[in-house]
């Protein structure tokens, strides 16, 4: 086959239609045409057409992934799952992910650290909850644990948990007064926030001590 014409698409700027032997052959991005160095009059083989189609798939997958990353950071698994939902082949998804990783745009360790910081900026949370959320997002256990250690390494978790418990106590006092089950409620609250039991115990002791200053012990 011989390329007889290369024409711009009317409704999609930056894309071109390639015609061979007077018949439409394939539509490609201008960067794909440049990469393959194709011109009118060149011979074009079925293998080249297949390579052009694959390059177009890669460009589409990368564009889809970048749109997702433009909304918020994502884990590798999130991007892989999204590309599969858009019906990109597994090898296309894998190559796209590898390319994004090589350019630093997709990094589970960086994603996990950023995710932990974002969660903690919204509300106090313990390592157990952060780990659970990261695992659900597809971050592997070792990477999740490393990120949590990095982010929480300089944080006094007992002090943070105690402050959160103190606020919880204040709300409960205003709405329910003195409830004999208050200690259990605070403990359950801190456990839901993902704090380990040793942190919960000490935070609870500090919070209850401050709350009960001048009150009868619960």
Question: Layout of SSEs?
Answer:
Blueprint: E1 3-8, E2 15-20, E3 23-29, H1 30-36, H2 46-71, H3 76-85, H4 90-102, H5 108-122, H6 127-136, H7 141-152, H8 157-176, H9 182-192, H10 197-211
Helix pairs in contact: 2-4, 3-4, 5-7, 6-7, 8-9, 8-10, 9-10
Give the CA-based shape: rod-shaped
Strand-residue proportion? 5-15%
Supply the number of helical segments: 10
Mean pLDDT: 90
Structural class by SSE content? mainly alpha
What is the H-and-E element order? Answer: EEEHHHHHHHHHH
Q: Please describe the biggest sheet, giving its number of strands, its sense, and whether it closes into a barrel.
A: 3 strands, antiparallel
Detail the poorly predicted runs.
212-218
Q: Strands of the biggest beta sheet: in what spatial order?
A: 1-2-3
Helix content: 55-70%
Calculate the terminal CA-CA distance, rounded to whole Å.
Answer: 88 Å
Number of strands: 3
* Radius of gyration of CA atoms, rounded to a whole number: 28 Å
Structure commentary:
The chain has 218 residues and is mainly alpha-helical. The chain folds into 4 domains: 44 residues, Arc Repressor Mutant, subunit A (Orthogonal Bundle); 49 residues, Arc Repressor Mutant, subunit A (Orthogonal Bundle), CATH 1.10.10; 45 residues; 55 residues. Helix content is 64%, strand content 9%. The chain contains 10 helices and 3 strands. It has a 3-stranded antiparallel β-sheet with strand order 1-2-3. A hairpin with a 2-residue loop joins strand 2 and strand 3. Helix 2 packs across helix 4 and helix 3 packs antiparallel against helix 4. The longest helix is centred in the N-terminal third of the chain and has 26 residues. The radius of gyration is 28 Å and the shape is rod-shaped.
């Amino acid at each position: 086959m011989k390329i007889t014409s290369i024409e711009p698409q009317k409704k999609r700027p930056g894309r071109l239609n390639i015609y061979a032997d007077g018949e439409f052959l394939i539509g490609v991005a201008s960067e794909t045409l440049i990469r393959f160095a194709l011109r009118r009059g060149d011979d074009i083989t079925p293998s080249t057409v297949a390579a052009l189609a694959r390059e177009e798939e890669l460009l589409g997958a990368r564009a889809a992934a970048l749109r997702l990353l433009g909304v918020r950071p994502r884990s590798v698994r999130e991007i892989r799952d999204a590309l599969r939902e858009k019906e990109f082949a597994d090898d296309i998804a894998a190559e796209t992910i590898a390319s994004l990783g090589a350019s630093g745009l997709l990094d589970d360790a960086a994603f996990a650290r950023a995710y932990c910081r974002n969660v903690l900026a919204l509300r106090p949370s313990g390592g157990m909850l952060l780990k659970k959320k990261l695992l659900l997002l597809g971050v592997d256990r070792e990477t999740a644990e490393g990120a949590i250690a990095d982010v929480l390494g300089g944080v006094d978790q007992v002090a943070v948990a105690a402050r959160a418990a103190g606020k919880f106590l204040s709300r409960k006092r205003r709405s329910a007064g003195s409830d004999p089950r208050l200690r259990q409620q605070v403990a359950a609250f801190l456990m839901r926030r993902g704090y380990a039991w040793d942190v919960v115990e000490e935070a609870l002791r500090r919070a209850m001590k401050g709350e009960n200053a001048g009150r009868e012990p619960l």
